[in-house]
Design a protein that fits this description.
heterodimer, A: mainly alpha, Four Helix Bundle (Hemerythrin (Met), subunit A), elongated, B: 3 helices, Cyt_c/ubiquinol_Oxase_su3 (chain A), membrane (chain A), transmembrane (chain A), Cyt_c_oxidase_su3-like_sf (chain A)
Protein backbone atom coordinates (compact mmCIF):
# COMPACT_ATOMS: atom_id res chain seq x y z
CA UNK A 1 0.00 0.00 0.00
CA UNK A 2 1.41 3.39 -0.99
CA UNK A 3 1.06 5.74 1.94
CA UNK A 4 2.76 8.75 0.32
CA UNK A 5 1.01 11.92 1.46
CA UNK A 6 -0.64 13.99 -1.24
CA UNK A 7 -0.80 17.77 -0.90
CA UNK A 8 -4.52 18.40 -1.43
CA UNK A 9 -3.92 22.16 -1.36
CA UNK A 10 -2.24 21.73 -4.76
CA UNK A 11 -4.84 22.71 -7.37
CA UNK A 12 -4.08 19.57 -9.46
CA UNK A 13 -4.71 17.13 -6.58
CA UNK A 14 -8.19 17.49 -5.06
CA UNK A 15 -9.13 14.52 -2.77
CA UNK A 16 -9.94 11.58 -5.09
CA UNK A 17 -8.06 13.03 -8.05
CA UNK A 18 -8.66 15.74 -10.63
CA UNK A 19 -10.39 13.46 -13.16
CA UNK A 20 -13.19 12.38 -10.80
CA UNK A 21 -13.79 16.03 -9.88
CA UNK A 22 -14.04 16.99 -13.56
CA UNK A 23 -16.64 14.20 -13.93
CA UNK A 24 -18.47 15.42 -10.78
CA UNK A 25 -18.69 18.98 -12.13
CA UNK A 26 -19.86 17.77 -15.56
CA UNK A 27 -22.56 15.63 -13.93
CA UNK A 28 -23.72 18.43 -11.61
CA UNK A 29 -23.92 20.89 -14.50
CA UNK A 30 -25.82 18.36 -16.68
CA UNK A 31 -28.37 17.56 -13.96
CA UNK A 32 -28.52 21.24 -12.96
CA UNK A 33 -29.36 22.33 -16.52
CA UNK A 34 -32.06 19.64 -16.75
CA UNK A 35 -33.55 20.85 -13.46
CA UNK A 36 -33.57 24.44 -14.70
CA UNK A 37 -35.41 23.25 -17.85
CA UNK A 38 -37.84 21.30 -15.60
CA UNK A 39 -38.64 24.40 -13.48
CA UNK A 40 -38.92 26.57 -16.62
CA UNK A 41 -41.49 24.18 -18.15
CA UNK A 42 -43.24 23.84 -14.78
CA UNK A 43 -43.86 27.56 -14.48
CA UNK A 44 -45.45 27.55 -17.96
CA UNK A 45 -47.75 24.60 -17.19
CA UNK A 46 -48.16 24.97 -13.43
CA UNK A 47 -51.43 23.03 -13.05
CA UNK A 48 -50.10 19.87 -14.78
CA UNK A 49 -46.88 19.95 -12.75
CA UNK A 50 -48.73 20.59 -9.48
CA UNK A 51 -51.17 17.68 -10.05
CA UNK A 52 -48.33 15.37 -11.14
CA UNK A 53 -46.20 16.30 -8.12
CA UNK A 54 -49.07 15.40 -5.79
CA UNK A 55 -48.99 11.87 -7.32
CA UNK A 56 -45.36 11.37 -6.26
CA UNK A 57 -44.63 9.45 -3.07
CA UNK A 58 -42.59 11.96 -1.02
CA UNK A 59 -42.23 9.48 1.88
CA UNK A 60 -40.42 6.99 -0.39
CA UNK A 61 -38.21 9.82 -1.63
CA UNK A 62 -37.32 10.76 1.96
CA UNK A 63 -36.60 7.12 2.85
CA UNK A 64 -34.28 6.96 -0.16
CA UNK A 65 -32.59 10.18 0.97
CA UNK A 66 -31.87 8.59 4.36
CA UNK A 67 -30.49 5.44 2.63
CA UNK A 68 -28.16 7.51 0.45
CA UNK A 69 -27.00 9.78 3.29
CA UNK A 70 -26.37 6.75 5.55
CA UNK A 71 -24.42 4.95 2.84
CA UNK A 72 -22.44 8.16 2.22
CA UNK A 73 -21.57 8.25 5.93
CA UNK A 74 -20.32 4.65 5.83
CA UNK A 75 -18.33 5.42 2.67
CA UNK A 76 -16.59 8.30 4.48
CA UNK A 77 -15.83 5.92 7.37
CA UNK A 78 -14.52 3.27 4.94
CA UNK A 79 -12.08 5.79 3.41
CA UNK A 80 -10.93 6.83 6.89
CA UNK A 81 -10.42 3.20 8.04
CA UNK A 82 -8.48 2.38 4.86
CA UNK A 83 -6.21 5.38 5.48
CA UNK A 84 -5.35 4.04 8.95
CA UNK A 85 -4.75 0.59 7.34
CA UNK A 86 -7.72 -1.07 9.04
CA UNK A 87 -8.66 -3.05 5.91
CA UNK A 88 -11.22 -5.41 7.49
CA UNK A 89 -13.22 -2.49 8.93
CA UNK A 90 -12.91 -0.56 5.67
CA UNK A 91 -14.24 -3.61 3.83
CA UNK A 92 -17.17 -3.95 6.24
CA UNK A 93 -18.10 -0.27 5.79
CA UNK A 94 -17.84 -0.60 2.00
CA UNK A 95 -20.28 -3.54 2.12
CA UNK A 96 -22.73 -1.49 4.25
CA UNK A 97 -22.36 1.36 1.73
CA UNK A 98 -23.23 -1.02 -1.13
CA UNK A 99 -26.20 -2.31 0.89
CA UNK A 100 -27.48 1.27 1.26
CA UNK A 101 -27.27 1.63 -2.53
CA UNK A 102 -29.12 -1.66 -3.05
CA UNK A 103 -31.90 -0.55 -0.67
CA UNK A 104 -32.17 2.69 -2.67
CA UNK A 105 -32.66 0.62 -5.85
CA UNK A 106 -35.28 -1.63 -4.15
CA UNK A 107 -37.32 1.40 -2.99
CA UNK A 108 -37.04 2.95 -6.46
CA UNK A 109 -38.27 -0.34 -7.96
CA UNK A 110 -41.45 -0.14 -5.82
CA UNK A 111 -41.89 3.53 -6.70
CA UNK A 112 -41.49 2.85 -10.44
CA UNK A 113 -43.81 -0.20 -10.28
CA UNK A 114 -46.59 1.91 -8.72
CA UNK A 115 -46.13 4.60 -11.37
CA UNK A 116 -46.29 2.07 -14.24
CA UNK A 117 -49.34 0.38 -12.65
CA UNK A 118 -51.16 3.75 -12.68
CA UNK A 119 -50.08 4.45 -16.26
CA UNK A 120 -47.77 7.30 -15.23
CA UNK A 121 -45.18 6.68 -17.92
CA UNK A 122 -42.84 9.27 -19.57
CA UNK A 123 -45.35 9.97 -22.38
CA UNK A 124 -48.16 11.12 -20.00
CA UNK A 125 -46.94 14.72 -19.69
CA UNK A 126 -43.71 16.73 -19.56
CA UNK A 127 -43.51 16.39 -15.74
CA UNK A 128 -43.27 12.62 -16.02
CA UNK A 129 -40.87 12.86 -18.95
CA UNK A 130 -38.46 14.79 -16.69
CA UNK A 131 -39.24 12.58 -13.68
CA UNK A 132 -38.36 9.33 -15.49
CA UNK A 133 -35.41 10.78 -17.36
CA UNK A 134 -33.74 12.36 -14.32
CA UNK A 135 -34.47 9.67 -11.71
CA UNK A 136 -33.60 6.78 -14.05
CA UNK A 137 -30.35 8.48 -15.11
CA UNK A 138 -29.51 8.96 -11.42
CA UNK A 139 -30.44 5.33 -10.70
CA UNK A 140 -27.92 4.18 -13.35
CA UNK A 141 -25.25 6.19 -11.49
CA UNK A 142 -26.18 4.44 -8.23
CA UNK A 143 -25.99 1.01 -9.92
CA UNK A 144 -22.57 1.85 -11.42
CA UNK A 145 -21.46 3.15 -8.00
CA UNK A 146 -22.37 -0.17 -6.35
CA UNK A 147 -20.30 -2.07 -8.94
CA UNK A 148 -17.32 0.26 -8.31
CA UNK A 149 -17.67 -0.19 -4.52
CA UNK A 150 -17.85 -3.98 -4.75
CA UNK A 151 -14.89 -4.07 -7.15
CA UNK A 152 -12.83 -1.79 -4.86
CA UNK A 153 -13.74 -4.03 -1.91
CA UNK A 154 -12.68 -7.14 -3.85
CA UNK A 155 -9.39 -5.51 -4.94
CA UNK A 156 -8.45 -4.27 -1.45
CA UNK A 157 -9.17 -7.68 0.15
CA UNK A 158 -6.79 -9.55 -2.19
CA UNK A 159 -3.52 -10.76 -0.62
CA UNK A 160 -0.68 -8.32 -1.43
CA UNK A 161 -3.24 -5.85 -2.70
CA UNK A 162 -1.77 -2.80 -4.40
CA UNK A 163 -4.89 -0.71 -3.72
CA UNK A 164 -3.95 2.81 -2.64
CA UNK A 165 -5.87 5.18 -0.38
CA UNK A 166 -6.36 7.58 -3.29
CA UNK A 167 -8.16 4.86 -5.29
CA UNK A 168 -10.58 4.24 -2.40
CA UNK A 169 -11.08 8.04 -2.18
CA UNK A 170 -11.90 8.16 -5.91
CA UNK A 171 -14.45 5.37 -5.41
CA UNK A 172 -15.86 7.38 -2.47
CA UNK A 173 -16.00 10.58 -4.52
CA UNK A 174 -18.08 8.81 -7.19
CA UNK A 175 -20.47 7.49 -4.55
CA UNK A 176 -20.82 10.89 -2.88
CA UNK A 177 -21.53 12.36 -6.32
CA UNK A 178 -24.68 10.17 -6.38
CA UNK A 179 -25.62 11.80 -3.02
CA UNK A 180 -24.99 15.29 -4.40
CA UNK A 181 -27.11 14.68 -7.52
CA UNK A 182 -29.96 13.27 -5.37
CA UNK A 183 -29.71 16.31 -3.05
CA UNK A 184 -30.37 18.50 -6.11
CA UNK A 185 -33.03 16.24 -7.66
CA UNK A 186 -35.19 15.45 -4.64
CA UNK A 187 -36.28 18.95 -3.53
CA UNK A 188 -36.91 20.17 -7.08
CA UNK A 189 -38.80 17.07 -8.31
CA UNK A 190 -40.65 16.08 -5.11
CA UNK A 191 -41.09 19.24 -3.04
CA UNK A 192 -41.72 22.26 -5.25
CA UNK A 193 -44.80 22.88 -7.48
CA UNK B 1 -11.94 13.14 11.85
CA UNK B 2 -14.19 10.41 13.21
CA UNK B 3 -16.19 12.90 15.29
CA UNK B 4 -16.53 15.15 12.23
CA UNK B 5 -18.08 12.32 10.17
CA UNK B 6 -20.55 11.52 12.94
CA UNK B 7 -21.61 15.13 13.54
CA UNK B 8 -22.00 15.69 9.79
CA UNK B 9 -24.22 12.61 9.53
CA UNK B 10 -26.39 13.76 12.46
CA UNK B 11 -26.66 17.26 10.94
CA UNK B 12 -27.70 15.74 7.58
CA UNK B 13 -30.43 13.63 9.20
CA UNK B 14 -31.65 16.61 11.27
CA UNK B 15 -31.85 18.80 8.14
CA UNK B 16 -33.77 16.04 6.31
CA UNK B 17 -36.22 15.87 9.24
CA UNK B 18 -36.64 19.68 9.33
CA UNK B 19 -37.22 19.90 5.57
CA UNK B 20 -39.80 17.07 5.66
CA UNK B 21 -41.65 18.87 8.51
CA UNK B 22 -41.61 22.12 6.53
CA UNK B 23 -43.03 20.24 3.51
CA UNK B 24 -45.78 18.55 5.55
CA UNK B 25 -46.85 21.79 7.26
CA UNK B 26 -46.95 23.80 4.03
CA UNK B 27 -48.77 21.87 1.32
CA UNK B 28 -49.81 25.08 -0.52
CA UNK B 29 -47.53 26.61 -3.14
CA UNK B 30 -45.41 29.38 -1.65
CA UNK B 31 -42.20 30.74 -3.17
CA UNK B 32 -40.75 31.60 0.27
CA UNK B 33 -41.22 28.01 1.45
CA UNK B 34 -39.68 26.70 -1.79
CA UNK B 35 -36.69 29.01 -1.24
CA UNK B 36 -36.33 27.81 2.37
CA UNK B 37 -36.48 24.15 1.26
CA UNK B 38 -33.90 24.67 -1.49
CA UNK B 39 -31.57 26.45 0.96
CA UNK B 40 -31.93 23.60 3.50
CA UNK B 41 -31.02 21.06 0.80
CA UNK B 42 -28.15 23.26 -0.38
CA UNK B 43 -26.72 23.17 3.17
CA UNK B 44 -26.87 19.35 3.02
CA UNK B 45 -25.11 19.45 -0.35
CA UNK B 46 -22.31 21.58 1.14
CA UNK B 47 -21.99 19.28 4.19
CA UNK B 48 -21.60 16.18 1.99
CA UNK B 49 -19.12 17.88 -0.34
CA UNK B 50 -16.93 19.49 2.34
CA UNK B 51 -16.95 16.81 5.04
CA UNK B 52 -17.66 13.45 3.37
CA UNK B 53 -15.79 14.25 0.12
CA UNK B 54 -13.07 16.09 2.06
CA UNK B 55 -13.36 19.17 -0.14
CA UNK B 56 -12.40 21.23 2.94
CA UNK B 57 -8.84 19.91 2.45
CA UNK B 58 -8.75 20.89 -1.24
CA UNK B 59 -7.40 24.00 -2.96
CA UNK B 60 -9.65 27.09 -2.71
CA UNK B 61 -10.33 26.83 -6.46
CA UNK B 62 -12.38 23.61 -6.02
CA UNK B 63 -14.37 24.99 -3.09
CA UNK B 64 -15.22 28.22 -4.91
CA UNK B 65 -16.09 26.40 -8.15
CA UNK B 66 -18.49 24.00 -6.38
CA UNK B 67 -20.08 26.90 -4.49
CA UNK B 68 -20.43 28.82 -7.75
CA UNK B 69 -22.10 25.90 -9.60
CA UNK B 70 -24.53 25.25 -6.70
CA UNK B 71 -25.37 28.97 -6.30
CA UNK B 72 -25.87 29.38 -10.05
CA UNK B 73 -28.29 26.42 -10.32
CA UNK B 74 -30.30 27.44 -7.23
CA UNK B 75 -30.42 31.13 -8.19
CA UNK B 76 -31.77 30.36 -11.69
CA UNK B 77 -34.37 27.96 -10.21
CA UNK B 78 -35.46 30.52 -7.57
CA UNK B 79 -35.68 33.28 -10.20
CA UNK B 80 -37.86 31.05 -12.38
CA UNK B 81 -40.25 30.13 -9.54
Amino acid sequence: MNTAKIDYKNIYYPPGGILIWIIIFLELITFGMALVAFVHDGTKDYETFHRAKLQLNTALGLINTVFLLSSGYFMAKAVHEFEVKNISKASLYLKITALGGLLFIVVKFFEYSAKIEHGLTPDVNSFYMYYWLLTAFHLIHVAVGIVIILWTNYAMRKPNSGTEAEEVKTCGAFWHMCDLIWLLLFPVLYLIF
Amino acid sequence: MKRSEESTFIALLALTLISSMVTLKNSESNTTIYALLLILWAVKFILVAFNFMELKKANLFWKVTLGFVLTLILTIILLLL
